[in-house]
Specification:
The complex is a heterodimer of chains A (about 425) and B (about 400).
Chain A lengths: L31 H36 L13 E8 L8 E10 L6 E9 L4 E3 L6 E4 L2 E9 L4 E10 L1 H6 L9 E6 L11 H7 L3 H31 L6 H8 L1 H4 L2 H11 L6 H8 L13 H29 L3 H9 L4 H30 L2 H6 L9 H11 L3 H28 L4
Antiparallel strand pairs in A: 1-2, 2-7, 3-6, 3-8, 4-7, 5-6
Helix pairs in contact in A: 1-14, 3-14, 4-9, 4-11, 9-11, 11-14, 13-14
Chain B lengths: L4 H28 L3 E3 L1 H18 L4 H16 L4 E3 L5 H22 L10 H35 L3 H6 L16 H9 L2 H32 L5 H11 L4 H15 L5 H26 L2 H9 L4 H12 L1 H17 L2 H6 L8 H8 L6 H21 L1 H11 L4
Antiparallel strand pairs in B: 1-2
Helix pairs in contact in B: 1-2, 1-4, 1-5, 2-3, 2-4, 3-4, 4-5, 5-17, 7-17, 8-11, 8-14, 9-11, 11-14, 12-13, 14-17, 14-18, 16-17
The chains are: A alpha+beta (about 425), B mainly alpha (about 400).
Chain lengths: ~425, ~400
């Protein structure tokens, strides 16, 4: 990428030429100085490496792991034993009989919990008449060992008790101290249960290919549209006139504003029932009936692509403008002398000079549009034929509650991405090296 | 054939009139809510006639004046370049005539300036055409950028009933005084938007600080120090921020659900910086490389350690770059939606973007949604306009990220 795309290429920073490489020590490969320098470098990088590993590398590995696991959204909470405690029989005076009841269950319907144990501290003034053989009572400490619970296990443990005066005196309820239940459960996430079902689920039927088709349409046209609009905007602003600064700031608004704000503004503007644009179109006689921009099958995809172009043209416009302003004006003067017309100058001089930045932008925008999630999610939620791969991750994971399938889609995205980046780096290193 | 003064001028005039008449009609509709629409035939005819006139007049004053008069007369007759519905006030009619006349006449006079009445050279023809295209471009780009924001702001100042009655009527009743801002007041009073604003603000600031704390040493190491794997490292930084957020959000959601970090500001503050560190590191290392190494060497000679050099020499020298990076990171954190949406469920911990998402329900009137959007947009716009120089630099440098 050319220098001007950095915050300070040689044009803005103090300029004493490119200085890379070591600033101390001889260039010896394993000298003590070099070693110390490398050590320092790694220690400076360590926090970043740690953070990136924790939030990027680990999750990526996790995605691969989950994609081959039969995980549903509900499985995220590990199965746990649950207990409710109450005192039945409405004791009214000392010496009354009552029943202390523990309602126990396994929170999971299909997972076994092993070695379930219960601990509770009884309120003063309760005397057990008879205790379940699995349980012991030492003073006020009540303990039980239940062994293994199958999935969906339920039990009501009832202990007949005699209520003493002390119970009424201290006035606390039996469940004042929480019942503690422990048990070993294996979450699907950590078990040795693997499946290819997730991949089968997403590739099954024609759905995957239509999703891929939508993604490609959105990506290709979104990218090209962004570049073309950006090129036009840059041409418009590549003159100095009064108000140029204001206009340039204005044209960046769509990119700088929060996506959620502008997405809702678009939704409102294009609403078929009370949207201003539809009202305008009807009034001007362009269309007889309001158009449902985000609800009709082929149109919704075009609209979200238009939104993508609208939102990201500022970015390519900024890049292209920066490149344009660095083109030497002498060349244009020479061409002028030779009698080149304005269009010829653009076609034969400007465009070739811009080709480098345009292709870099194309690749970057292509990858980023491919990865885009928020925009479509907010505009249509992936309905009306706008479901892209990224929206599909969300759809599978949360709408269909199949986290495993969502992860499988994510793996597919990651695969595409790797493919792009191989291409990207091959190209970029040829293209003046990022 | 086209390259003839008497052909080019009327053709450009006719096309330009269509554009101006449409623009003014749209603007007047949006401003008053009354029915304005361009009349294609009227616009074409008037435009062509005025094109010829402008070619003859060759004046930047007389042509617009003629435009205003002609448009005014035709508008009054009801055939003009724009036609209106019933009950449009005289004032708005006059305003329309004025806007069309000047908006049409002045640029047209520029298009045909120094154009001969006979055969045109390629230069003259393309010059006029380019001016026409540029003028069209300004109008189109400005309109598509401004309209959504205009709708956003104006909707937030109206009420549901007015909006449904006439979706085009964005005129606001100034006599209400502060009542105009009732959506904002309700949002802050009943929907805790004041809190969200503060939450968003301090999360963004924390994100900036943490990002810089990680990225400055990292960027310095990549830019200045020699170690094995440096080239690989500076490349893989780029690779990292090409990983789509949704791919990472899924396992992060799972991990946070299991560790109880979901629904906590701490979790958000842990995650946001990591999404911005690679960008910041990449931007900063580019800048550090451009700094002269000699000053740092002098510092080392004088007995400073590397860390002192970074703190006392490199950082003060790179303040502009730090400002750009901070602004850019602030913008990313402020605008972030996906993670906030997935990880925050508790209304007491929402960020602004998450708060707006919670307003998106059929029970909450639309002006609240738009008022929320304005509340989220205004601060970032204000910062952006105030510090545009840094922001633009930051955008170009960091916008490898989308």
């Amino acid at each position: 990428m050319p220098d001007h795309t950095r915050p300070a290429g040689p044009t803005t920073g103090p300029t004493t030429g490119p200085t890379t490489g070591p600033t101390t020590g001889p260039p010896a490969a394993t000298g003590p100085l070099a070693r110390r320098e490398a050590r320092l470098a790694w220690s400076l990088l360590a926090p970043t490496l740690f953070a990136v590993a924790a939030v990027v590398i680990l999750p990526l590995l996790a995605v691969f792991w989950i994609s081959v696991k039969p995980v549903q959204l509900a499985d995220l909470r590990a199965p746990a034993p649950v207990a409710r405690e109450d005192l039945r029989g409405r004791p009214e005076a000392a010496g009354d009989e009552a029943t202390l009841r523990y309602r126990l269950r396994n929170s999971s319907q299909d997972q076994t919990i092993s070695r379930v144990a219960l601990t509770d501290i009884w309120t003063d003034g309760l005397t057990a008449r008879e205790i379940d053989p699995r349980c012991t009572l030492e003073g006020s400490h009540f303990r039980c060992n239940f062994g293994d619970w199958e999935g969906g296990y339920r039990e009501t443990l009832e202990i007949p008790v005699i209520v003493d005066q002390a119970y009424f005196d201290n006035g606390t309820d039996v469940d004042a101290t929480a019942v503690i239940l422990t048990g070993d459960a294996q979450s699907v996430l950590t078990s040795n249960d693997f499946t290819l079902g997730n991949f089968r689920a997403i590739f099954d039927g024609g759905e995957f290919w239509s999703v891929l088709g939508v993604t490609l349409f959105y990506t290709v046209f979104g990218t090209i549209g962004t570049l073309v609009a950006g090129l036009f905007a840059a041409l418009l602003l590549n003159h100095s006139f009064r108000g140029q600064g204001i206009l340039r700031g204005l044209y960046l608004f769509p990119y700088v504003a929060p996506v959620i704000a502008v997405a809702f503004a678009w939704l409102l503007l294009l609403d078929p029932f009370s949207g201003s644009l539809n009202a305008l179109l009807v009034q001007m006689g362009v269309t007889g009936a309001p158009i449902n921009f985000f609800g009709q099958k082929p149109l919704a995809l075009v609209t979200v692509t238009a939104f993508e172009i609208w939102r990201y043209f500022p970015l390519s416009f900024l890049f292209i403008l920066a490149r344009m302003q660095s083109i030497d004006t002498d060349m244009y003067e020479a061409a002028e002398m030779d009698g080149a017309s304005p269009f010829q100058k653009f076609w034969y001089l400007s465009l070739p000079m811009l080709l480098g930045i345009l292709s870099v932008l194309f690749l970057l925008r292509f990858i980023w549009t491919f990865n885009k999630f928020d925009d479509i999610f907010l505009l249509t939620g992936g309905n009306a034929g706008t479901r892209t791969l990224t929206v599909n991750v969300y759809e599978q994971s949360f709408a269909l509650s199949n986290i495993g399938a969502g992860a499988a889609v994510a793996v597919v995205i990651f695969g595409c991405l790797l493919l792009f980046s191989v291409f990207f780096f091959k190209f970029i290193s040829r293209e003046e090296g990022l | 054939m086209l390259r003839h003064g008497y052909v080019t001028a009327p053709v450009l005039g006719a096309l330009w009139m269509i554009i101006v008449a449409t623009t003014v009609s749209v603007a007047m509709s949006f401003a008053t809510g009354a029915a304005f629409r361009p009349s294609v035939i009227g616009a074409l005819l008037l435009g062509a006639l005025l094109g010829v006139a402008a070619l003859h007049l060759q004046s930047l004053r007389t042509t617009p004046a003629l435009g205003v008069v002609a448009t005014g007369v035709l508008l009054a007759m009801g055939v003009g370049p724009a036609v209106t519905g019933i009950g449009v006030s005289f004032l708005s009619l006059a305003l329309t005539a004025l806007a069309i006349g000047i908006g049409f006449g002045w640029p047209l006079a520029r298009f045909v300036q120094d154009m001969p009445t006979g055969h045109l050279t390629r230069h003259e023809f393309e010059g006029a055409l380019i001016q026409f295209l540029m003028a069209t471009g300004y109008i189109v780009f400005t309109a598509i950028v401004v309209i959504p924001f205009y709708v956003m702001v104006m909707t937030s100042l109206k009420n549901q009933a007015e909006l449904i009655q006439n979706p085009l009527d964005f005129s606001i009743d100034l006599s209400q005084g502060w009542g105009l801002f009732r959506s904002y007041i309700e949002l802050i009073r009943d929907f805790r938007f004041g809190e969200y604003l503060w939450t968003s603000f301090y999360i963004s600031v924390l994100t900036v600080l943490i990002t810089l704390a990680f990225a400055i040493p990292g960027a310095y190491a990549v830019a200045r120090l020699r170690f094995r794997g440096r080239a690989l490292f500076s490349r893989s930084i780029l690779l990292i921020y090409m990983v789509p957020m949704i791919v990472l959000a899924l396992p992060i959601y799972i991990a946070f659900s299991m560790t109880g970090l979901r629904n906590s500001i701490a979790g958000i503050v842990m995650i946001y910086p990591v999404t911005t560190i690679p960008v910041a590191l990449y931007m900063l290392q580019g800048y550090f490389r451009g700094l002269p190494a000699e000053i740092e060497e002098a510092g080392l000679m004088d007995g400073l350690t590397r860390l002192q050099v970074i703190w006392k020499i490199t950082m003060p020298l790179s303040l502009p770059a730090l400002a750009s990076v901070s602004l850019y990171v602030f913008m990313i954190a402020w605008n972030e939606f996906l993670l906030a949406f997935m990880l925050l469920d508790d209304p007491s911990k929402f960020t602004l973007t998450r708060g707006i998402a919670s307003l998106n329900s059929s029970e909450i009137p639309r002006q609240h949604l738009m008022a929320g959007s304005v509340i989220a947009t205004l601060p970032i716009m204000a910062i952006f306009l105030g510090l545009e120089r840094f922001m633009t630099k930051g955008l170009t440098a960091g916008s490898v990220k989308g």
